[in-house]
Structure prediction request, 323 residues.
Amino acid sequence: MPHSSGGGRSHGGSHRSSRSSKNSAANMRFGRSYYPGANRYVYYRAGMPQYYFSDRPYTLQNARSEKIKQFFTSIISIILAAIFGFSGFKSLPQKVKTDYNTDILINDAARLLSDTEEAEMNEAFLSFQNKTGVTPAFFTINIKELKTEGGDLQDYAYKLYVDTFNDEKHWLVVYCVDNVEKSWSWEGMIGDDCGSMITTDLENEFTRQLQSNLMDNSKSLSASVIDAFNQIGQKAGKISGNKIPTLIFLFAGGGLLLFTAVKKIIGTAKQKPEDDPRINATQCPVAETEPETIKCDYCGNEFVAKLHTTCPHCGAPLENNWE
Ligand SMILES: [Zn+2]
Prediction:
């Protein structure tokens, strides 16, 4: 359904359009820091001792379920990244597809335009259509005609739009003149499929522009309409400044999500659950405080003192170094 893009009258200015239209237990068991009741387990990675805290040792089962969990987390991140990217592209301006009847309609029932003015308007509408894919239309009516149709210009314009066009890609302006009262009013009616090119901000700008042109006695009716469409046509399709932070958020956020997810998938794909060093961890006698470490005489890597009989890095036998 089309909606009002705004309108105005000779006395009282313009109006804006109003659009109607399990894990917690599992996580607890394997912490990175001490909690009451936990044991401290040491395993080795890159020559250095690493610890985890748990009431039981980490098993192959744990390594497997962790791998599955990481895989699903990565999948969810990828889906999120796709949603971010898609919303980003959706909010970029896109020319409206001209897959509809794009004939220019100028209907001057109130006889307010000369042939030359109509021809100029036709040309301006074509150029607006080329730029945006939206087809402008202009109708003039006499107040008598409006009164027989109920008297409300917005209703009239809505009905006229729906009766005249079977698409949502036209931008209709109806200008109503009252020759007795020497007054006029107008209404814009725009199809809902124009939104990718004509934002609400542009609709409002058009309303302001056309109204101020019409109030300017030095401008003719046709010049006012042509100028308003020309100005909006120049601005349509540009990314407005207030959209840039959202776009950066969506594209950068989506990219980062995708990057970390892919990195994680490659990382987990390379590592077999069997190779998880935590499976062969050794329980330390004291859980609360970090144990003393010493360096192996053979390989130079660090390990927890008074715990191992062979070096956990090179396998060299250790003298009973804690006695
Ligand atoms: Zn060693």
Q: What stands out?
A: Residues 296, 298-299, 301, 311, 313-314, 316 surround zinc ion (CB under 6 Å).
